[in-house]
Amino acid sequence: xxxxxxxxxxxxxxxxxxxxxxxxxxxxxxxxxxxxxxxxxxxxxxxxxxxxxxxxxxxxxxxxxxxxxxxxxxxxxxxxxxxxxxxxxxxxxxxxxxxxxxxxxxxxxxxxxxxxxxxxxxxxxxxxxxxxxxxxxxxxxxxxxxxxxxxxxxxxxxxxxxxxxxxxxx
Length: 170
Description:
170 residues, mainly alpha, 8 helices
């Protein structure tokens, strides 16, 4: 019989405080959910590419669907982007705004490794978009995701100025 101080456990030592044995190992999640979670943890950029893709689709759909909305304003005023759309055509507006949508969406893929840089790139693209195009785009939601990442991955002295940048935008 082994002595308790040598690191060997006796049969009586395997009982837990609740009276059950601690020998049974139950899985944390049923049906292989743990394997899926482990795969998602190993591929964070691929996981972040999914919302980035849908933000890009939403941004392009907003540009394409906003053709008629840019020419008519309830106040009767026609914004500069609508005047440009009338003279250049909707395809040219798409070509001009597509790089801005890409500059706002692509940093979402790299947000976990480079949160400050990703937020900075998207904020600059958002500022250019605000100055050149009067309407918000669907890809503007990337700023919210990047601000959340900035607050989650960096200290408060870095994330609060990021919030200030978002609140200072017109």
